[in-house]
Amino acid sequence: MLRRLYDWTISLAQSPHALWALAIVSFVESSFFPIPPDVLMIPMIIARPSRAFLIAAVATVASVTGGLFGYFIGAQLMESLGHPILEFYGKSGNFEDMAEVFNQYGAWAVVVAGVTFLPFKVITIASGVTGLSLPVFILSSIFARALRFFLVATLLYYYGAPIRDFIERRLGLVFVVFCVVLIGGFAILGML
């Protein structure tokens, strides 16, 4: 089923309404959809590199807006909608433990999930449940999603199809290492 959903999402990239499809996929991916917007962005940018940064901007705005919907799910619809979504992603069992840690590091959790291929929707819902400051959530989401989508757009704009394999296979790992270094740097500065 997931493969058919992935193939269907890829087919949207060839549609004349691809930007709208990207906006919708970016929005729903931040709240409940399992396929990341990069799946649409990559073929769209390779097909029309001159629109790379417009495509990244659409993905960013729609993803942050979708993240706000995920926040709303966590804050207001946890019982009816939030728990089933978390169960689908296998995150409901340890959610209470995660929520406790989340209260301490919420902005970092949003940034890490926003730039890596961790399920961003779990973090958006957790942000609402734990009552993470809405301005902190919004700023962290904008930073993380813009960093991720504009980096993908920049790489594809300058290097095109040859960089596609790197993005699809290794960019998630690069983002994880980046986040570890960034957080470690701030931790070291905090100790000085």
Structural features, described:
The protein is an all-alpha fold and 192 residues long. It contains nine helices and no strands. The protein is globular, with a radius of gyration of 17 Å.
What helical percentage do the residues reach?
over 70%
Topology, number of strands:
0
Overall structural class, as computed from helix and strand content, comes to: mainly alpha
Distance between the termini: 51 Å
Number of helices: 9
> Which overall shape is indicated by the principal axes computed on the Cα atoms?
globular
Arithmetic mean pLDDT? 79
Pick out the low-confidence regions.
Answer: none
**What is the ordering of alpha helices and beta strands?**
HHHHHHHHH
What is the gyration radius calculated from CA atoms?
17 Å
**Sheet with most strands:** none
State which percent range the strand residues make up: under 5%
Task: Describe the structure concisely for a colleague.
With 192 residues, the chain is an all-alpha fold. It contains nine helices and no strands.
Pick out its properties.
single chain; 192 residues; mainly alpha; 9 helices; 81% helix; 0% strand
What topology does this entry show?
Elements: H1 2-12, H2 18-29, H3 38-47, H4 52-76, H5 78-88, H6 95-115, H7 120-130, H8 134-159, H9 164-191
